[in-house]
Design brief:
With 442 residues, the chain is an alpha/beta fold. It has 13 helices and 22 strands.
C-alpha cells in the first residue's frame, strides 16, 4: 500500500491517492483530474473510488469528472445529498480497495455532512485517517462556513459543539499512532492556526493541538469561534458547485473567449489585471483592479469579485493569461471571464506616485487606509490615525472613506495594497497612492 499526497500551494489544499494491489482510491481531488489519472497510469493502477469528505467551500473538486473518466464510483455522506450519482458513505459502511479498507466516521463540525475516513491496512489496523476539514495539523476546521451555504445549514455555535464531540468521541479514540492526512495546510482559510507540517498523527495532535486539550464544551465553542479568518465571497458558491459536480476542466477552459492584444473592454465591466504592480501603475485600462499573479491570486480573485460577476482578464502575455485562467478555474471562476487578452490599453490610465518624503513629513494631510484583516489589526495598528477596511470588504464600503484628502493605502507587505489602491482609483476623485512594499519600513 502507498499513500500519495498532492499539494496545491496556492490554496494550501492536500488531496490523496491510496494504491493497493493495482487499485486506487482518490480522496478530495483538486479541480484538475489529470495528476490522479497520470499517477494511475504510471503505477498501472485502476481508480476504483473517489471519496469526498464534504462539499468543499474553498476549491472546486474534480470528483465528478475524475469518476467519469476513470469509471469509478463517488463515495460521500448521504447527508451531503449531492446532485450527482454517488454511493452513500457513512458510519457502518466499508470500501475495499486492493488489500486495504476505508471506513467512514461521521464527524460534523466544519460542516454538518463532514466525514473522516479511516484507512485500515491488510492487518486490519488503523493505518491513517483522512480528516478532510475536521482535523488539521495544529488546528481544526472552522465552524462558520455553512450558515448560508449548502443544503444542510447550521449555526456556527451548533457546529462548534458538534466539532467538540467529533474530536473527542471519534478521532481521539483512534490509536495514537494513526497517521492524520488533512485536506489543508498553513495558509488555508478553512482554519486559523495550522502547523507547517502536512501530515501528523493522532498522538501528536492530542498532545499539541490546542483544540484537543482537556476543556469544557462551552469553553471549546467560545475558543473555536474566536478570531476565525475572513470568508471569501466565493466560498458559498463553491459548496453548491461541488454538490452538483463541476464541469469538465479542459472544456470549460477552452470556452474562455480570447481577444487580440489591445482589445478595448466595455467600460462597465471590471478588468482584472494580473500584471505586477509596477507594470500596472505605469499604464492600465480604466475600471481595472490589480490582482498580481502570485501565490494567492485565486483567493483574492474570489474575495474581491462576486461569484456571479463577469470580469475581463488581462496579463502581459499568453502564458500569463493561461496561467491565470487555470488559477481562476480552481475556484470555478473561469466561467465568469467575459474575455481574456494581452494588456495593451490604447489610452492607458497611470497610477499616482507617492512622494514618500512628503508623506512622512505630513501624514496628517492624507487619509491612511489600512486594508489588512481584523486579526492583523488586533495585533497593532501601523499608523495610529488610520482608517481600517479589510480588502475583501473594500468595494462594498467605499462610501465610508473620506474624499477630502489624498488617500494612502497600505497592507502588511505590498501585495494587497496594489489591489486596494486600484479599487479606489476607479471610484474616488482624489489622488490614491499605494504605499506598497515601503510599509515594511514603518
Amino acid at each position: 500500500m502507498n499513500v500519495h499526497q498532492f499539494y496545491d500551494e496556492g490554496l494550501a489544499h492536500a488531496s490523496y491517492a491510496v494504491v493497493s494491489e493495482g487499485e486506487m482510491a482518490v480522496v478530495d481531488p483538486a479541480r484538475d483530474p489529470q495528476p490522479y489519472l497520470d499517477l494511475a497510469e504510471k503505477l498501472g493502477a485502476t481508480i476504483k473510488a473517489v471519496i469526498e469528505t464534504h462539499p468543499h467551500a474553498d476549491f472546486v473538486s474534480s470528483h465528478a469528472e475524475l469518476a467519469r473518466k476513470a469509471g469509478a464510483k463517488i463515495y460521500t455522506s448521504k447527508l451531503a445529498a449531492p446532485s450527482y450519482t454517488f454511493t452513500g458513505f457513512d458510519e457502518g459502511d466499508a470500501l475495499h480497495i486492493g488489500n486495504v479498507t476505508f471506513r467512514p466516521l461521521n464527524t460534523p463540525g466544519h460542516s454538518p455532512d463532514s466525514i473522516s475516513v479511516v484507512l485500515y491496512d491488510d492487518g486490519n489496523s488503523a493505518y491513517g485517517v483522512f480528516t478532510g476539514d475536521t482535523l488539521f495539523v495544529g488546528d481544526v476546521g472552522r465552524p462558520d462556513l455553512r450558515e448560508a451555504a449548502g443544503n444542510l445549514r447550521a449555526k456556527k455555535e451548533e457546529l462548534a459543539s458538534q466539532m467538540y464531540d467529533s474530536l473527542r468521541n471519534k478521532l481521539m479514540r483512534l490509536p495514537r499512532e494513526t497517521r492524520v492526512y488533512p485536506a489543508h495546510g498553513p495558509g488555508s482559510l478553512c482554519g486559523r492556526a495550522m502547523g507547517n507540517e502536512r501530515t501528523s498523527t493522532i498522538g501528536k495532535e492530542v498532545s499539541q493541538n490546542y483544540a484537543l486539550q482537556d476543556m469544557p464544551q462551552d469553553d471549546f465553542v467560545k475558543l473555536l469561534l474566536e478570531n476565525q479568518p475572513f470568508m471569501p465571497k466565493y466560498f458559498g458558491y463553491d459548496v453548491e458547485v461541488n454538490r452538483k459536480g463541476a464541469k469538465d476542466l479542459e472544456s470549460s477552459i477552452q470556452n474562455v473567449h480570447k481577444e487580440k492584444p489591445g482589445y478595448q473592454p466595455e467600460d462597465k465591466i471590471i478588468v482584472v489585471d494580473g500584471r505586477n504592480q509596477s507594470s500596472f501603475k505605469a499604464g492600465h485600462y480604466p475600471n481595472s483592479i490589480n490582482i498580481p499573479d502570485g501565490l494567492k491570486f485565486e483567493t483574492w480573485l474570489g474575495s474581491i469579485i462576486e461569484p456571479d460577476e463577469e470580469f475581463y482578464l488581462t496579463a502581459e502575455d499568453d502564458n500569463a493569461i493561461n496561467t491565470l485562467i487555470r488559477k481562476a478555474s480552481k475556484i470555478g471562476y473561469e466561467q465568469n471571464i467575459k474575455a481574456a487578452f494581452i494588456a495593451k490599453p490604447a489610452e492607458p490610465v497611470k497610477s499616482a506616485h507617492l512622494n514618500k518624503e512628503e508623506f512622512d513629513r505630513n501624514e496628517g494631510n492624507y487619509t491612511i487606509l489600512d486594508i489588512r484583516n481584523q486579526p492583523e489589526i488586533d495585533e497593532g495598528k501601523i499608523f495610529e490615525e488610520s482608517l481600517h477596511i479589510p480588502l475583501h470588504q473594500l468595494r462594498e464600503r467605499i462610501s465610508e472613506i473620506p474624499s477630502d484628502k489624498p488617500i494612502v493605502v497600505h497592507c502588511a507587505g505590498g501585495y494587497r495594497s496594489a489591489a486596494g489602491a486600484s479599487i479606489l482609483e476607479n471610484t474616488l476623485n482624489v489622488p490614491v497612492y499605494d504605499l506598497g512594499e515601503s510599509i515594511r519600513n514603518y
